[in-house]
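To assess whether the prediction recovers the assembly geometry, we first specified each molecular entity separately, as shown.
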Amino acid sequence: MSRAWNFSAGPAALPEAVLKRAQAEMLDWNGSGASVMELSHRGKAFMQLAATAEERLRRLLGVPVGYKVLFLQGGATQHFAQIPMNLAADGDSADYIVTGHWGEKAVREAAPYINARVAGTSEAAHYLDLPPRERWTLDPAASYVHYTPNETIHGVEFHDVPDVGDVPLVADMSSNILSEPVDVAKFGLIYAGAQKNIGPSGLVVMIIRDDLLARKGRPMAKIFRYAEHAANDSMLNTPNTWGWYLAGLTFEWLETQGGLAAMGERNARKAKTLYDAFENSGGFYRSPVAVNARSRMNVPFTLHDSALDAAFLAESEAAGLLALKGHKAVGGMRASLYNAVPQEAVDVLVNFMRDFATKHG
Amino acid sequence: MSRAWNFSAGPAALPEAVLKRAQAEMLDWNGSGASVMELSHRGKAFMQLAATAEERLRRLLGVPVGYKVLFLQGGATQHFAQIPMNLAADGDSADYIVTGHWGEKAVREAAPYINARVAGTSEAAHYLDLPPRERWTLDPAASYVHYTPNETIHGVEFHDVPDVGDVPLVADMSSNILSEPVDVAKFGLIYAGAQKNIGPSGLVVMIIRDDLLARKGRPMAKIFRYAEHAANDSMLNTPNTWGWYLAGLTFEWLETQGGLAAMGERNARKAKTLYDAFENSGGFYRSPVAVNARSRMNVPFTLHDSALDAAFLAESEAAGLLALKGHKAVGGMRASLYNAVPQEAVDVLVNFMRDFATKHG
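The predicted structure of the complete assembly is given in tokenized form:
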């Protein structure tokens, strides 16, 4: 078939221009006579690629001096464990704001290493809202505060950066990094699995403030220490070279699209198109998420009659609309609207939804 | 340029047929309307791909029942640390046979977790030979014995599997897995970074005996526990889907090539071609490695006059022969002859070497 409209939550749609470039260069990258996957990460050509990708990311996000950018492996889940290993020592505690599945998992993976305190949670609201700030119980002595600016499964997003005082703020931005401008200076550490807004799975991008790299953490192997990765320009061991390459192509594509301000506008418009379609459906479709907490990236929704779910999924797939099934933890549908999903895809989806509602209404 | 002859030690040459297939499927894999990189790892299509890749690997290696096959992230280096975390508890010790750089690194990364005993080493021979078996000081109470069947940098390879009694044998096969038949039943755990004989970097393939999965190890996050990865079919978190896909294509290619018996014959012939060229060079080229310890996969060699090294590298590269520079720890040259490097590449190399020797002799 031709290219489908892909609403996958991750691994997710990549920019078609990036895929075409990777396709064209597959057997001979940069005149090397080899695929980029076949080259040593320590060769001049790949080192240049790696440095250029980092520069583009720094430019896109406006990363201030005093931060290192790392290209790591393992997925965000591994870093749920590795962050406390690096930023805290035995007996230390850190605060976690939990607004969905991924925040819960971050707590669970940190717990073997530190006192992972839940300082705010919307569990009682079934993670369909954000916990009110006045109920957060932040500890000024915490090693850091961890939160999830966008929850991929529950479709809940912070629309500002919480003020946590002098405690370093750590953010799992896996599903909304690069989707709009962000003030990096407000964070101690930002990390993101690549497979939503950056590239293929198997890569983690991390932005970490120098003072956090200097923390002692606990005794552990060198390979787990962020300071060692930083000192070795993320080449302490063989990095995921294909992921790094595709990330660089995506960063380049974002620059040609006008950078994060332009992406922010587009993403806001895409999300509005879809949320408006719910409002205008006469109750046929609805978002379960509180209005002020709605995600621009991951949009769960339900049909007024769940008996229609199977037909919705079958008909949407037949219409070339992929991966609209909601996560089993939430049910219903979910459309993920990452950077690589164009407005046209959302327009096609909304038209399909209107036709489906007419047919089955 | 057209495709070069690629002797990179890793990331290394991939079969051209695999690259062409990946290129053709880049924008539309399996009729899905999306790249394989853009699909959920939990979707039916990718799950099938993953299972088929595992089946092919099991068939190629003849993996007996009672072993799990895992597709993990992090590179072999991370598993230098993760293996002791999983297979041993505080106060336990494990034996390490060290025959080069990677064995040293395995000890260093294990040391924060266990008593990593060096039970045999060829350090005194500058890792240009194997340590005589009669000098190994194996401890029957060790949690496991770790060794490196092929040392990528020093070019030293075991040509049989050492008998270590009832203690589980753990092998870092990163640079010689799938290069010839192997009796998996002799091992407790085999692991390999993919970027030599399997696929791109960013993937680790592990074959682990069930009883080792049942070991308690130390308290740690779920993401580090092999038993959890096994229980979740290596989808405890998002795997490196592109790496898994390419690994599957490589396994399929190996089957069409006649499997590991055929590869073993080809690899032996390729290595003989190159070692014979040293012998027949009248001393112009030589291997620093003891005859019985010479690797079939990674062949370091020196020129009789190191003042010619720069010219050798410049002229070989101009002739389309890539990545012949030796590792800085050893110096000189190195040709890596993994599965994807055809006999023709070695023939071209040997002809180049003869011409170079004539010109500069």
